[in-house]
Structures are given as structure tokens and as C-alpha cells.
Amino acid sequence: MYKYLAILNGLLISIMVLLNGTLAKATGLYFSLLIINGLCLIIVILIIIIKKIPIKDILTLPKYLYFVGILGLANITMNNISFINLGATLTMGLVLYGQLLSSIIIDFGGFFGLKKQPFHPKKIIGIVIMSLGILIMVIY
């Protein structure tokens, strides 16, 4: 079940990068960021109001967790810039490659409070294949 959810998430991310990049081409980088994040803010506020989520629960979170908003903005910005200059396929390939490398480090180190995951040498085969695929896309 969760593996299918992760695949669906990957599909949605690809569509999101495509649409965000297209919006950035049409309106400019900063105005597209305003549209994307402004709509997200409005939708989340509506969800909080409709579900009657108490704000006090949100305010008790550790302050460092609010940093993810900056990461989200940086992510959308870099996706849009990459999409405009590299196209959808190379952008998504490089994004996935970066996610793979950072995920390996996070799993192996048990960072962010996650349980440490052992690194199986067989994973190197997948990493090498993906690295070669990215290299071929960058060259050609």
C-alpha cells in the first residue's frame, strides 16, 4: 500500500514540477512563487478553519521545524529555475538523484530521529545504474 502511495507521490511531484516550471516561464520566477505559495497558504488556512484545528497545537512544535517552509520555498525555486533551463526530464532525473543520495545518508546515519537503516552493498548496483543514466542524460 505505502509503496503505491510513494509511486503516486512521485507522479504528482513530476506533474507539480512541470506545472510550476510552466507557470514560472509564463509569469516569471518570483510571481510564480507568489502564486504557488499564496494558493497553498489559502488552502491550508481553509483546511485549518474547516477542520477547526487549534492553533495552540501548532505553536507548541519545536522552532526548528518551521525551517521546512524555507526549504519548501527553496525547493520550488530551484525546481522552477532548473525546469526553465534544463527541461522536465533532466530536472526530474537530477532531483531524484539528489533525493537518492541524501536519503542514503539520512537512512544510514539515522538522522532526524529516524531509525538507522543498514546499507546493503547490493544497493550500489542501483546507484551505479542511476548514476550512469544521469550521466548519459547530462551529456546528451
Number of E-type strands: 0
User: Which ranges are low-confidence, i.e. pLDDT below 50, for 5 or more consecutive residues?
Assistant: none
**Total number of domains:** 2
Number of helices: 6
Q: What is the SS-derived class?
A: mainly alpha
Listing every helix as H and every strand as E from the N terminus to the C terminus, the arrangement reads: HHHHHH
Mean of the pLDDT scores?
Answer: 91
Helix proportion: over 70%
Quote the beta fraction.
Answer: under 5%
Give the overall shape.
Answer: globular
Instruction: Please report the distance between the alpha carbons of the first and last residues.
Output: 37 Å
> Measured on Cα atoms, how large is the radius of gyration?
18 Å
Largest sheet: none
Q: From the structure provided, what is the oligomeric state, counting identical versus distinct chains?
A: single chain
Give a concise summary.
The chain has 140 residues and is mostly helical. The protein contains six helices and no strands. The chain has helices at residues 2-27, 29-51, 55-59, 68-86, 88-109, 123-139.
Model description:
The model has no long low-confidence stretch (mean pLDDT 91). The protein has helices spanning 2-27, 29-51, 55-59, 68-86, 88-109, 123-139. It folds into 2 domains: 1-86, no CATH class; 88-140. Helices cover 80% and strands 0% of the residues. It is globular, with a radius of gyration of 18 Å. It is built from 6 helices and no strands. It has 140 residues and is an all-alpha fold.
